[in-house]
């Protein structure tokens, strides 16, 4: 199963959620932020090389508490990346590892659209602050146009109830999918840098429980999208999020 | 169903434009087959062919009593007056039918590929602008890919496929680095790529065959003289060809005899057209550089005061 982790705005915590989701699903996390990668990387080949046709994605996996397919940091690598190679690369990793979580960049460009199109479903990461909601809605619309089901919403960094923050059930209503709040905890914030996912570091903590719940929602139901089974996607935007 | 067409030859390519006119009051689906030799180079957006195109032709829907324009490029060497496309099949379509070209021409199990192509075509390009990418990897980009090298050739060899392809597609010019940043759209570059790759091997490097390793050297007199003499030669070529256009039979025969035979005259015409194309690209690039220079104000005086 390929899960795209999206969210219109930068800085809402997509990477942290993607990393911890991969841990909770025992999957691989792919850093698909071709221009501003921030998952841990190494010295070897990375996603830039894969998308340039110079490396096998399975040979680029970096083992650790969570297996990562890292992404290069260079502009040249980003520029040379051919997105038409991404779907096949994700599928190759999926065949070996089952669940592939794709950390997508912010925005609505092709580097978000292609992983979304290649994914079986997506997880939308949103900030509970009301100013972040329009971007979340736009991203949900993009997923709809590309006919990728929205499995769940991760409402990230809900600590206390700061002024201007929205209730989780309200966000779920607006975006049309089940939402889980993820509290802002030091363990969650440091999980990527320290490479210690919350579900293994502090499995009883609030953040770990939230990630487990999200992982359940995301992996529930049939593992392959309808589109990959049979339906041909067309140019016609096709409405309706498919919650599993 | 009525098909009218026009073929224009530009730099060794056949540029085909067709009008497909459906004079019936019902919507029809039409399959057009390319009749020219050589591969179809379909129109592209961000490097991805438009829906409906494949290796052999194009399939589209034409509404009742309406006309659709179709255009593509073919790397064909066949004569220009040959019919470029024929109508292979026409069928009526009902309202309930899928009316997108992609849905018709590609199989259902290609759903993901369809969706990916669609996303690349319709969404914004993710890539950083070419100007922001250091050519030789010494521009503070970390350099794991464009690591410092000694010249454009080695830098190219170290570049991944896409970038290499784009560089291959750019016009030959006095400075490889500048030419690679030319302003033509990506789509054009894609469409021209296979031809240019071949072209760079032949002898028709009109401007400056020797590519300088150091792109910062001032333009040397010798290179300028070569460019000028090449343009002068083209002037003479054009004079010769003009004699053909206004001439009586005798003059025409003389011009043909000078060229050798009709075939070599024809190849001269093609070669000159290609040279003109190359010069046009160079002119665009020069215009751009001049414009950039004119907009630029270097605060030399302020710098001198600070120093």
What do these coordinates show?
The complex is a heterodimer of chains A (244) and B (307). Chain A is of the alpha/beta class and 244 residues long. Chain A is built from eleven helices and seven strands. Chain A has one domain (2-221): P-loop containing nucleotide triphosphate hydrolases (Rossmann fold), CATH 3.40.50. Chain A has helices spanning 14-25, 47-51, 75-80, 86-97, 110-118, 133-145, 168-175, 186-190, 198-201, 206-219, 226-229; strands at 2-6, 28-31, 67-69, 100-103, 121-126, 149-156, 179-182. In chain A, strand 2 (28-31), helix 2 (47-51) and strand 3 (67-69) form a beta-alpha-beta unit. The longest helix of chain A is centred in the last third of the chain and has 14 residues, at 206-219. Chain B has 307 residues and is of the alpha+beta class. Chain B has helices at residues 101-105, 111-122, 152-158, 161-169, 176-180, 186-199, 221-246, 249-259, 262-295, 300-306; strands at residues 2-10, 13-22, 28-34, 40-41, 44-45, 48-49, 57-62, 66-74, 85-92. Chain B is flat, with a radius of gyration of 24 Å. In chain B, strand 5 and strand 6 form a beta hairpin. Residues 99-109 and 137-215 of chain B have low confidence and may be disordered. Chain B has a four-stranded antiparallel β-sheet. In chain B, helix 4 (161-169) packs across helix 6. Chain B has two domains: 2-122, Immunoglobulin-like; 130-137 and 148-295, no CATH class. At the A-B interface, helix 2, helix 3 and helix 5 of A face helix 2 and helix 4 of B.
């Amino acid at each position: 199963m390929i899960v795209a982790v999206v969210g219109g705005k930068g800085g809402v915590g997509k990477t942290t959620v993607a990393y911890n989701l991969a841990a909770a699903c025992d999957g691989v996390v792919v850093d698909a932020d071709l221009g501003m990668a921030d998952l841990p990387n190494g010295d070897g080949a990375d996603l830039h090389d894969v998308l340039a046709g110079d490396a096998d994605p399975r040979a680029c996996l970096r083992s650790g508490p969570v297996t990562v397919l890292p992404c290069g940091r260079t502009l040249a690598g980003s520029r040379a990346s051919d997105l038409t190679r991404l779907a096949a690369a994700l599928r190759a990793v999926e065949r070996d590892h089952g669940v592939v979580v794709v950390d997508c960049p912010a925005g609505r460009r092709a580097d978000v659209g292609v992983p979304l199109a290649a994914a079986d479903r997506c997880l939308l990461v949103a900030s509970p602050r009301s100013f972040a909601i329009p971007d979340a809605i736009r991203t949900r619309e993009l997923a709809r146009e590309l006919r990728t089901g929205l499995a769940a919403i991760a409402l990230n960094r809900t600590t206390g109830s700061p002024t201007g923050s929205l209730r989780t059930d309200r966000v779920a209503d607006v975006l049309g999918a089940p939402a889980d709040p993820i509290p802002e905890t030091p363990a969650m914030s440091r999980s990527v840098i320290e490479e210690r996912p919350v579900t293994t570091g502090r499995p009883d903590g609030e953040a770990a429980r939230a990630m487990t719940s999200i992982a359940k929602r995301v992996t529930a139901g049939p593992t392959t999208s309808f589109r990959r089974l049979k339906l041909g996607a067309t140019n016609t935007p096709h409405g309706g999020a498919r919650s599993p | 169903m009525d098909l009218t067409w026009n073929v224009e030859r530009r730099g060794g390519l056949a540029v085909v434009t067709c009008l497909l006119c459906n004079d019936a009051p019902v919507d029809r689906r039409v399959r057009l087959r390319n009749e020219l030799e050589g591969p179809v180079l379909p129109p592209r957006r961000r490097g991805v062919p438009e829906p409906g195109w494949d290796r052999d032709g194009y399939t589209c829907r034409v509404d009742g009593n309406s006309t659709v324009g179709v255009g593509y490029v073919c790397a064909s060497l066949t004569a220009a007056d040959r019919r470029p496309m024929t109508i292979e099949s026409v069928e009526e379509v009902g309202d309930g039918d899928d009316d997108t070209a992609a849905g018709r021409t590609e199989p259902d199990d290609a759903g993901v590929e369809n969706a990916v192509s669609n996303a690349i075509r319709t969404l914004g390009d993710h890539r950083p602008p070419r100007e922001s990418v250091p050519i030789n990897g010494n521009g503070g980009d970390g350099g794991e890919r464009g690591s410092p090298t000694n010249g454009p050739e080695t830098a190219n060899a170290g570049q991944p496929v896409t970038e290499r392809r784009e560089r291959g597609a750019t016009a030959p010019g006095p400075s490889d680095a500048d030419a690679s940043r030319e302003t033509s759209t990506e789509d054009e570059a894609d469409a021209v790529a296979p031809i240019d790759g071949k072209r760079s091997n032949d002898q028709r490097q009109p401007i400056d065959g020797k590519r300088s390793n150091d792109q910062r050297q001032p333009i040397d007199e010798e290179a300028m003289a070569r460019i000028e003499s090449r343009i002068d030669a083209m002037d003479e070529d054009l004079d010769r060809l003009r004699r053909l256009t206004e001439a009586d039979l005798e003059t025409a025969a003389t011009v043909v005899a000078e060229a050798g035979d009709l075939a070599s005259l024809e190849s001269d015409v093609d070669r000159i057209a290609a040279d003109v194309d190359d010069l046009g690209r160079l002119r665009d690039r020069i215009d751009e550089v001049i414009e950039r220079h004119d907009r630029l104000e270097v605060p030399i005086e302020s710098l001198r005061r600070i120093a």
